[in-house]
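Long-time lurker. I teach an intro course on protein structure, and each term I like to show students one example going from raw sequence to a predicted 3D structure in token notation. This year I'd like something fresh instead of my usual example. Would anyone be willing to generate the tokens for the chain below so I can use it in lecture? Attribution to the forum is fine with me.
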Amino acid sequence: MDCTGSMGSYIQAAKRNIEAIVAKLAQSEGYDLRFALIAYRDHPPQDQTYVTKKFAFTNDVEQMKRDLATLSAQGGGDGPEAVAAGLKATLDSEWRPDATKVCIFIADAPPHGLGESGDGFPNGAPDGVDPFEVLSQMSMRGICIYSVGCEPALSGYQYAKDFFVAAAQKTNGQAVSLRSAAALADVIMGGAIEEMDLQQLADEVVEEVKQMRAARSAEGGAADGYDSDEERSAAWVAIQSRGHQTRHMQTKKLRSKHAGAVCKASSLSEARETLQSCAPSAPVNRKKLSAASAPMAACGLGDMELGSRGRREKKKKGFGMGLMSRARSKDVHVDLADDVMEAPMARGLSLASYSLEEEGDGGSGRMSGSDSDDDFGGVGAAGGVRLETRALSFSQVGRIYGRQKNMGVL
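-- Reply from a regular --
Happy to contribute to a lecture. Here you go:
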């Protein structure tokens, strides 16, 4: 969680809603979860307080409340923040090996070194941590990122949205746009639930692809190296035909024109060159932004892990930018660290008034709705977040496939 001056409302939202989040995910959904928290600000001389603060993984909600109580929003410096350091601390957290791992990454400012004007560290953070190398390592570990872009501040930067959408794509997560801290709890709950639903289908996707490769090999072809789009399409058709339903978090997506190209970058310097070669987007008049919405850096609600009940493990260190672990079979871990998840999942999540662009696999359309009761004790989906239970989508299969491929399973 970015804890610079602009993030006060998100920190307060986390403090207010942590008990309701745990109640929903642990009691209603039955997850064995753990949270970790990583707060970050910036490197000296841009900020003289701290670069990162780490709080160990815990399944104790009272401990999580105490950890959150120590956080306040202040400081910051140039504009870009210590995003890379926060991601590195998230990667280095003590994740349970078989957990469902999700990083909730809430931010309103990019990392250093992307090419933003006024960047105090134009070549990257002084600690030498390359955020793109860290993202690749997170992907190989099966840690997916839910990037939550805090608007309108995020759009005040030229390349921030490109980075946050690319971070989600690179780790097979999702990127959402958030204009109100009121939706933070729903994002965390929604993201966790959707990821856990998908994890239950991971083995099935892997088996479909392996059978396809075996059949091709028997026909004289290579056993691997096939086009991933073809493989995931075939897996989706086969699995969907069995009638699987999953929960889908519906909220406004964070969009970026150049994220696809940035996602392919293996280093910060390569990403910077890619962005500089692109046609510059129209500059934003930051004078129109209020002081309260000054550039907010990425922030995370902490790491959360879900695992099977009855199994306790050593508390993990690291409080990252929103981590969530997806658990397989009996062990499910979900780590939430950044405000990236939005949406009350089906089964009793609040559906407070919403109006959003629905972005499905095949197009988009307008949606609107009204309030309905929920079982979260007042934690609502205010801010345009909701959950839908429906057929497994092509994009969901793509995320499962991409994660298994990056982890070396496929």
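Some talking points for your students: The chain has two domains: 5-199+250-343, 202-243. The radius of gyration is 20 Å.
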